[in-house]
Amino acid sequence: MRIAHINMARGYRGGERQAELLIRALDDFDVEQVLVARANCPLAERFAGAGIEIRSCSGLLSAFRATRGVDVVHSHEGRGVYAAWLRNEVSATPYIITRRVNNPLGDSWLTRRAYTRASFVASVAADVARIVQAFDARIRSCVIHSSSSGLPVDPATVKSIRERFTGKWIIGNVGALDNAQKGQEYIIEVARRTAESHPEFQFVLVGGGEDEAMLRELATDLPNVEFTGWVDNVGDYLAAFDLFILPSNKEGIGGILLDAMDRSLPIIASRVGGLPEIVRDGVNGFLIDPRSPDQLEQAILRLYDDPDLRQALGVRGQEFSRDFTADAMAARYVELYKQAAGGGA
């Protein structure tokens, strides 16, 4: 069975990380893979020399042409959906869609046609699947959760990060600096509130993005906030953190939480999208309302004051994350590929 993965993103965010994890895990299954991606994009570069055929595209039509000669097309982001649909229209090649965001779908004839013609739409969370089904009940929908990443950790680098913040309690966030989605302004607000009362708090924001300059300006006078910019060694930072926070305004699934749990980190996250499917309030983390720096501050202070609670949340989080592996995710997708190629639904 030959699968064409389409991801037309120019950058590398959570969706691209999950696509990479799936493609690598599928090496252990009886499938041949093609990656359709923009030339020189980070995802394509990560597979350079890896033995997978990479077909470059620059837009919808070139992505459509690059899907020729396969058994199933798998779209990993929104633009690829229409290339997959067009391939189906021309050559009846079945396709599946992975839906990662909980935004409402655009109510156009083309979107409705593309989603209802898909063999399956795999949502990364039940909350996302509900939105897909509400859009059109004819869509063949299922849920396949994201995977933890198994991020590598270099002890020497972790030690170096800890030494850079000697005597500090490191509160970390990892994600694109996209404030409308990720809500990093609330982290900066809490950093400002606690700068004098808790000078031992160090807030570290790992990642880059379109709002980096704005957020840096917002925190320009705060010595307790550091921006790393985009880094490739996310695992080292997670291993150096004492607490992980994700005060997002909206999320599909927030797969980075599984990576934080894998490092036994206590977690604070917003009660939005699919996050409550990962964070069980009071069990393996705390849930707070979105856009609530008050609740974020209170949760941080509570965990800081209670090391036994931090440890308990971290242990239970690590146990929970063990079920969310790339191999398990790949096995679910292989079943979808088989059903799609066989005409099943």
Please, what is the CATH homologous superfamily of the largest domain?
Answer: Glycogen Phosphorylase B
Q: What helical percentage do the residues reach?
A: 40-55%
The overall average pLDDT, rounded, is 96
Instruction: Give the helices and strands as they follow along the chain.
Output: EHEHEHEHEHEHEHEHHEHEHEHEEHHH
Q: How much is the radius of gyration in Å?
A: 21 Å
Q: How many DSSP helices? A: 15
Low-pLDDT regions: none
The rounded distance between the terminal residues' Cα atoms is 18 Å
Strand fraction equals: 15-25%
- In the sheet with the most strands, the strands line up as 3-2-1-4-5-6-7
For the secondary structure, the number of strands is 13
CATH class of the largest domain: Alpha Beta
User: Structural class of the secondary elements?
Assistant: alpha/beta
- Find the CATH topology of the largest domain: Rossmann fold
Q: How many structural domains?
A: 2
Shape: elongated
What is the subunit organization of this protein?
single chain
Looking at the overall shape, the CATH architecture of the largest domain is 3-Layer(aba) Sandwich
